[in-house]
């Protein structure tokens, strides 16, 4: 019985070590906090995550909030200019955590801002400077 328990423990530990080694490649590469724009209230944190496969995901924090607007989208920008080619889709909710896949070919390291962008009126609703 003790031998069986030792084997089970050894297998579980090996699996944990393998998982930890793979997950060490993934993690936060940038983060910031939204500030409202164009007379909109946008608050909360945002994080850019590098996934194990090398792709990236943008995650709006649980504290994310937007006061509302038509057609709010998520994308990257640099030095005050939104890049429409980085669009990650329609905001899923006005509040709370949500994630967006960064399009293939878009390198988050090329940008220093994440936008909540109103596509209908071509104005920023919120901007987060990312480090």
Automatic annotation (TrEMBL):
Keyword Kinase: no
Pfam families named in the record: DM13
InterPro entries: DM13_domain
Keywords: Signal
Coiled coil: none
Signal peptide region: 1-26
Residues annotated as domain DM13: 32-131
Name by which UniProt lists this protein: DM13 domain-containing protein
Species whose genome carries this gene: Tateyamaria armeniaca
